[in-house]
Specification:
The chain has 442 residues and is mainly alpha-helical. It has a single domain, classed as SecY subunit domain (Preprotein translocase SecY subunit), CATH 1.10.3370.10. The protein has 17 helices and 5 strands. It has a 3-stranded antiparallel β-sheet with strand order 4-1-5. A two-stranded antiparallel ribbon has the order 2-3. A hairpin with a 2-residue loop joins strand 2 and strand 3.
Length: 442
């Protein structure tokens, strides 16, 4: 306990880290306050009975920290921005113009970010129309506020709210402790956790004390498994040739390139979840007469349905491979090793090294993707076991993966600041594996 308080003191003794933490907390407070600002002309006293706490809509509400159910200016949250990012990243593989932009360095990234923002506005406009048509009824609107102009104002408010969330996420990444977009989602999830636990405890009552203990023990086991596999790495041994520079000898040491089992982190979950939101938002626009569309909407609105879970798991596996492919470049790693005089024992430098790294990456990505998919569909099994839906959202699934992933990334960010200032890390034993225990080759 003494070491814990000493670590906290060290964290706040670093001025840059202290300011980054304060800036992050301020942005998160603003994000939470915005989730309670209702759209213009909406009567908040009539909103709670709209029934958006079930199924997929309940997941959207959890992700937005209640803003979705509150018909807030942050009702759509950051999801349109994530959808736009998915589209732009897909275009960087399919369209030569975007491939060129990606290779242009900082200037290319700035242009891609501009395209992402413009596409975010377009997606938010489309989703806001569906959102208002589906969830804002005449009885929710104050008298005299249900005209074309006020609907236009509400649409603009939703677009502005999403763009403001996007801006806050970028500022947290730049001025705060990083992972701005993921952190906004995590805060929205955590804000719903206390109420979910109270609902679960109230549902079980005293006669359900033993099942309740079993549930919390199972949740603890799932958390430990997720943490272990999230931090798991496959280390590739790299040997550096000895070089004589002046009177000193450099190299000649064996180092390691760590490849994470789940190198894509929480992004495949976020990407897949943002895609799963689309049917629930589009189906109301197709009208009640379209039976085919309505049946799809009903199936995908229930997160416990087999259609939803099979599609969700498939998307996670696909996005895991996709995001790993765009974030880890074996060819670039092989070139860096060759340029620095490093080689993998038994493997020729250059193309063979690239193929060797790519083969290992493929072998570890597949089980990692399967694990992510299994954990993501756990809430459906938790619901079948009698756990309330509010608590089942956190029983594994997207919510737990995002919370653990963001928390671990944040701890690694803080630990890197401590180590740069020659302080002891966050944990003296069992260090976070996100930071290599020995010098990293690449």
């Amino acid at each position: 306990m003494k070491k814990f308080f000493s670590t906290i003191k060290n964290i706040f003794s670093i001025e840059e880290l202290r300011m980054r933490i304060i800036m992050t907390l301020l942005f998160l407070v603003v994000f939470r306050l915005g989730s309670f600002i209702v759209l213009p002309g909406i009567d908040p006293s009539t909103i709670k009975s709209d029934g958006t706490n079930e199924g997929l809509l309940g997941i959207i509400n959890v992700f937005s920290g209640g803003a979705f159910n509150n018909v807030s200016v942050f009702g759509l949250g950051i999801m349109p921005y994530i959808s736009a990012s998915i589209v732009l990243q897909l275009l960087t593989f399919a369209v030569p113009h975007f491939q060129k932009l990606q290779k242009d360095g900082e200037s290319g990234r700035k242009k891609i970010n501009q395209y992402t923002r413009l596409l975010t506005i377009v997606i938010t406009l489309a989703q806001s129309i569906g959102y208002l048509a589906a969830f804002v009824k005449p009885e929710n609107i104050y008298p005299g506020m249900d005209d074309v102009f006020m609907n236009f104002v509400r649409i603009i408010s939703l677009v502005a709210g999403t763009m403001f969330c996007m801006w806050m996420g970028e500022r947290i990444t730049e001025k705060g402790i990083g992972n701005g977009i993921s952190m906004l989602i995590m805060v929205g999830i955590i804000s719903r956790l206390p109420a979910a636990i109270l609902i679960e405890v109230g549902d079980k009552k005293l006669q359900g004390a033993l099942p309740l203990l079993i549930e919390f023990f199972a949740l603890f086991a799932v958390v430990m498994a997720v943490v272990a596999l999230t931090q798991a790495t496959r280390r590739i041994a790299v040997q550096y040739a000895k070089q004589v520079v002046g009177n000193k000898v450099y190299g000649g040491q064996r180092q390691y390139v760590p490849l994470k089992l789940i190198g894509a982190g929480v992004m495949p979950i976020i990407f897949a979840q943002s895609v799963m939101f689309v049917p629930a938002l589009i189906t109301p626009l197709l009208g009640d007469g379209n039976d085919w569309a309505q049946s799809i909407g009903v199936a995908f609105a229930d997160f416990a349905s087999w259609q939803y879970n099979v599609t969700f798991a498939t998307l996670i596996i696909v996005f895991t491979f996709f995001y790993t492919a765009i974030t880890v470049n074996p060819q670039q790693m092989a070139e860096d090793l060759k340029r620095n005089g490093g080689f993998i024992p038994g493997v020729k430098p250059g193309q063979q090294t690239s193929e060797y790294i790519d083969d290992i990456l493929t072998k570890i990505t597949f089980p990692g993707a399967i694990f992510l998919a299994l954990v993501a569909v756990l809430p459906a099994f938790a619901t079948m076991a009698g756990i309330t839906r509010d608590f089942a959202y956190f029983f594994g699934g997207t919510s737990l993966l995002i919370m653990i992933g963001v928390v671990l990334d944040t701890l690694q960010q803080i630990e890197s600041y401590l180590l740069m200032r020659h302080y002891e890390g966050m944990m003296k034993s069992g260090r976070l594996k996100g930071r290599a225990e020995s010098p990293v080759a690449v």
